[in-house]
Design brief:
Strand order of the largest sheet: 1-2-3-4
Mean pLDDT: 75
Low-confidence stretches: 1-23
Distance between the termini: 10 Å
Radius of gyration: 20 Å
Largest sheet: 4 strands, antiparallel
CATH superfamily of the largest domain: Transferase(Phosphotransferase) domain 1
CATH architecture of the largest domain: Orthogonal Bundle
Structural class: alpha+beta
Number of domains: 2
CATH class of the largest domain: Mainly Alpha
CATH topology of the largest domain: Transferase(Phosphotransferase), domain 1
């Protein structure tokens, strides 16, 4: 993932970085199981090489908005960090802001009112533009959704916010062809109306776009 954030095309090689070294496969029977209660510092593992990963540090701020607060874990292809949205305040998984870093603009930048506060109507309207109408199961989950959608899922909050004429495909401007389609599928796997349908961190690490 680091190379995707550093270069326009994911198959490019980052200048100055050494090539990845393949290590021989060892039988799983030679490993011992560690107790779940024992914390592990991944950077002390034998094959960990910091030069293979983007040099994120606690306190770093990206796009003048997202501040790194915690390292969540280290895997074969990336390190997952937790960041704080300095404008909107809730903590967001670092992978959810891949779009903002990769594209150089906020996917949900136009969701604030004239005073800079979060506007739930504009937020939902933008979600409809990106994902289409929500499923019926989503409708009764908050008072705001009941004010925005009819029973058939049609947008009814026209006075509060209009559905913008935008889509994920039109917003994405750096890629083309199958590479673009794969990236959009990756983003859609995180942008789901129902949280339980969103891919887990483990599933995201196995996504074809990251592994290509």
């Amino acid at each position: 993932m680091a190379s995707r954030l550093l270069t326009p095309r994911h198959h490019s090689v980052c200048p100055g970085l050494p090539p990845l070294i393949k290590t021989p496969i060892t039988s799983i029977n030679t490993y011992s199981t560690l107790p779940l209660s024992s914390p592990i510092e991944e950077e002390t593992l034998p094959y960990y090489n910091p030069q293979h990963y983007y040099p994120v540090k606690l306190g770093d701020i990206y796009n003048t908005r997202y501040q790194i607060t915690t390292k969540q874990g280290y895997g074969a292809y990336s390190t997952t960090w937790l960041s704080l949205d300095l404008q909107f305040r809730p903590s967001l998984p670092f992978k959810v802001i891949i779009w903002d870093l990769f594209e150089g603009e906020h996917l949900f930048g136009d969701i604030f009112d004239a005073k800079g506060g979060h506007d739930p109507f504009r937020h939902l309207a933008l979600m409809v533009a990106y994902l289409g109408s929500p499923p019926g199961e989503f409708m009764g989950r908050s008072e705001t959704t009941e004010q925005c959608f009819g029973r058939d899922g049609v947008w009814i909050a026209h006075e509060e916010a209009a559905i913008p004429a935008v889509s994920l495909e039109s917003k994405e401007k750096r890629l083309s062809g199958e590479e673009k389609d794969s990236f959009i599928r990756f983003i859609r796997s995180m942008l789901r109306w129902l949280p339980e349908e969103r891919k887990t961190a483990k599933q995201l690490l196995e996504d074809p776009w990251l592994l290509a």
